[in-house]
Amino acid sequence: MAVRNGVGTGLALSLHRGGKGVATLRPYKTPTLILTILLCLTMPVFAQMTIQQTLDAIGPGATMSWDPLLRTGAFNAGPDTAAFITGDPGEMSYILVNYRQVYSAPSPYLENNQLYFPTDFVSNLQRIFGRQNMVPGTIPQAQSQAPSQQVPGTTEGTNEEAFHISAIIIDPGHGGKDPGAKGKHSIEGKTVEAVEKNIVLEVSLRLEKLLKAAYPGKKILMTRRDDSFPSLEERVDIANNVPIAGNEAIIYISVHANASLNEKANGFEVWYLRSDYKRNLVNPDDYADRPELIPIMNDMLDAEFNNESDVIARSILSRYAEEMKDSMQNRGIKEEDWFVVRNSRMPAVLVELGFVTNQDDARIMTGEEGLNKMAKALYNGIGDFIKNFETQ
Ligand SMILES: [Zn+2]
Hints:
The chain has helices at residues 33-42, 51-58, 119-128, 196-214, 232-240, 293-324, 339-343, 359-366, 368-391; strands at residues 11-13, 24-25, 48-49, 63-67, 72-77, 80-85, 92-97, 101-106, 109-111, 114-118, 157-158, 164-172, 182-187, 190-195, 219-222, 248-258, 268-273, 330-336, 348-355. The protein is of the alpha+beta class.
């Protein structure tokens, strides 16, 4: 895999965390007299703070990661993440909360290779992580996975429900007039046709059933449930139009099967977007009056979605390997810019279940036992990611 550009990489200072964080957010424009007095009482009066002082101000268990190349970083505590980008001292910048909501704050900056955080930035972090739970309210509904615009904000809110996956989109590849890859084999005296569109639908329907049973509170959506052919654009639209709240996220799993002219080629692999590919994740209409936000938001979201996609890919691959044992080869993680992955505004992966052109793979992929195993492997992999994501 190529170098990951993510705020999850780089420096990580780790302490243990105490109680559950309740993020209370207020826009930067409202440092009132009371707040100023409170701040003076609760933190030493510095114009700026170091990383350690900032972590101490957030509370026990807070961590920070920093990507020197992108000049972005993120503070984490409990289920909440507050990402930032550095600028010049005195400049205004943004805090991206849980990769979905934006707030203005004075910019953190680098001086002699040290990161400094203005006290107003830190007081915003304290509110985000619930140290100053001053303003009850609710976070308004966002219209899409792309962050809702709340800058300059009048929105005040409490993140009452933890950040969670609200929808899983399963995309069985091909369908209808498009059969996908095909292989024909003579297995135990019988001619077996392994057709990608049928295999991926069978596995996806089983996966849907498992996920629906395990997660009654989540939307489990299919881009097709029969032998129809939604276009690639339609599949992406289904994904990008799922309405979600500010503390919700969606993941996208595209299911395919492989083929090769070399009938010996075999095994499963999981793909996600090449990390040097920059997606357009932000809807420009949402930022009509703050266009300068678009590239910043895009970079931050891109880094985060790549990170999450990488974790989903690894979770699925490891469960697939566990399920298949020696019966199928693990071809690993791959990076490519597939249409459906490239155009979905969310973490997305593409699974190649096996090779329809390989006799051993085809036997597994056309048998009841094999189909169940593949669905179970995907289900377990997604389950591992959800657990990791929702309790981090
Ligand atoms: Zn395919």
